[in-house]
Records
---
Amino acid sequence: MRLPEKFTSEMKAFFAAYDLPEEGFWASFDEPSEKGIRISRSKVRDQEERQHVLSSAGCNEDPVAWCDGGYYSENDKPGKSPFYHAGVIYPQECSAMLPASVLNAKPGDIVLDMCAAPGGKATRIGEDLKGEGILVANEINFKRSKALLRNIERAGIPNAVILNESPENIAASLPHFFDKIIIDAPCSGEGMMRRDDRAVRSYEQFGPDTVIPIQRDILESAAILLKNKGEIVYSTCTFCVDEDENMIIGFLDRHPEFKVVEHDIPEGVSESPVLKGAMRIWPHLARGDGHFCVHIRRDTEDTDPEYDIEPDKPRKEEDMHKAFVDDLLRPEYKAVFDGRVLRNGKSLVIPAMNERLLRGLKGVKNGMFLGEIETKGSKKIFAPSNSLPLLFTGDMIREDSFANFDHDDINLAKYLKGETIPAPDTLKSQGYVLIGVEGYPLGLGKNTQGMIKNMYPAAWRME
């Protein structure tokens, strides 16, 4: 393929400066990129299930060395699988799976994904948190923040906050708030050139000089946002040393309290020749596109400010949703919403964090959106959110409320296209039901006289 002259000359100089072999590097740009999927470890709980999901989704059991749950895929259209709609699988370029694995979020952590759309890293972090702590996923581009919202919802992450903000504004509101921050920085995109012709055109129009100041500013905001003893994982999909190692070296010079955290280097990943502990993925040495990743930690004993992160308690217990919940969930799971639901205008939510901390920030989501209170004539009714089923697991749902189809059932395909489908004989005769694929909920419907009225949103449907 045609590569920009500036890029080729700089890479040749890089290989020469560090005595690295070029053999295979240039040829890799004429080879197809590896495709990958990640299986949700929150929803798929054992190896037998993993194997079945992979087989049904048209994938082999071919794991990515640096990501538990990551697999190489020969399926060009995993988004056509019902497992994708249920949040069971997530298509993701294999190299992009590395940074969230390196971050290694733990239950209870407060984590910021600074540049989160479309959501590959955020959904992996949400799995790692296991519903404990807070995930704040930010995207400065409003249109992309909507795609991020959909992927967070599909993954069924209950403790997520989604912002549509600049890093500077978040830093002004929440200094020293986060335990861990992941930055998949805007970059010149050299590592994406072989899979996207637009990356070449973008490089020629903008290039490293445009993004380097942005990367520097994002890192400075992260330094403000991070707690003492906190950790940052910084990554790019470019080979440019000024955007990668030199960006971090400059940051460490300005912030000597930070140090690089070294890791055992996974198979297929290379240690940087420029900065000890930093990692690179080379397309001619690994099954993945070009990527850079480094893990740094602040090492100070200073005291962090105290924040009241717990959501406000409801002034009174909301109950408009309870009939819906009682009609769907098994008795042992009904209490999951008790005493936690706040009413915000017409909306019923279970916030992930105290709403007061988010004042002045443009928010897209805070926690679980259950649905809205609607008025029909003189009667108020609860209209459930279409994303609500994705928060449930199959074992939570009453058998007579769960229309559970096989992966290849024609009626499931019809449902995902927005059509009315016949109700299985096991369902109650009328009312809301959950639609699922092999035990994984994915959407809502209403059973009326043996037919399920489709409630799957038009924007989510398969073509």
Note: Residues 322-350+361-460 form a domain with the Nuclear Transport Factor 2; Chain: A, fold (CATH 3.10.450.720).
---
Amino acid sequence: MVGEFAQLGQRLAIVLGGAISLHDDIRKAREFCDDPLIIAVNDAGFDYEWKVDHWVSMHPFLLERLVKQREKRGFQPAGKLWAPRHISTPEGVEFGRVSSWGGSSGLLAVTLAFDLKVEKVILCGIPMSPEGAHYFAPKRPWNDAVQYKAAWSRNFDRMNGHVKSFSGWTAQLLGMPTKDWADA
């Protein structure tokens, strides 16, 4: 579960998305800090074998299934589950609720990081580009990315200087993280 410091606001969070770049991005992000807050999105929470502090999705019924699959794999249970306020959740599964800025589950994870008072957010596997296919279907472009770009652009001023990305269009929009940025 999330430690006391993380509940009050942590300096750095890593958001894990589902794009093919995820594993390369995670390797790069690990150079920036020892114990970041980990916010997983959708399938990334199922596949990420280490600690997951928060698990978020625009699709809470998908998370219900993935939580069981994570448990079957023998991974440590994830921390709190989160869904947008405006979407119904499965009965019998406890979800926190977070406001949605629109857009993808990745942007919902950024919103959660801000609600948790995280100072800086590193996006891994969230390029928001069609060529940033899901890692579980690498040959199929993720064309839905295009429709979500407007919400990311609309919220640029909120994220500018606080959110960076290692890949794709979000790296172009927000910039790539550096050790100096993370340490500042």
Note: The chain has a mean pLDDT of 89.
---
Amino acid sequence: MAYADANTTNRKLGAGTAVLLLEAGLAWAVVTGLATSFTRKEEERFVSITPTKEPEIKPIEPPKPQDQTPSQAQRSPQEPRTDLIFDTGPAPMPTTVADGGLGDGGIGELEITRPVPTPPPPRFTPKSARPRGGTGNWVSDNDYPTGDLRAGHEGRTSYRLAIDASGKVTDCTITTSSGWSGLDRATCDRISSRARFDPATNSDGDRVAGTFSGAVTWRIPSEE
């Protein structure tokens, strides 16, 4: 019995050892196969990745030079341009001013001013009022005021007349008195009623109001 048990025990131990070895081999094969499969998958994954192609960078060509005229091609870089014209209007006229207290021989300031454009000439030349037939018949010796004549009053009376656009006297003003009111009053009375004028005209040729100035000398006539 003891021998049989021993053999049985040995067989069991051998069978168990074989089973363990078989299981260990299977485990190793499984592990090795998985590792190999994983490695292959990793290799296949890495191999299957195609690197992105870098964009091709083309060099930028410099701009082509424009056609130049012979004068431009022959001009050196240092030579100033003379073919450019800028219109800046009329040139300012220099005007000298006082020397600012520098005395004789000093250099004064220089003021630059632009010339003032000349206005166009008028269409017509303006004219002042003009007497018709002269002024000699406006006042005579017969117009001497009686009271002033008896009193021997003499003098010179200056006046200014206002004349409308029709040539009629509308007002008389004494600008310098003769010293005698009778003579001054007679001056304006006689001239206002007798004087006639060609009216004044403006630059458009239109008749306008104007003035006229004159004087009357009052002197007692001699009896000779």
Note: The longest helix spans residues 2-48.
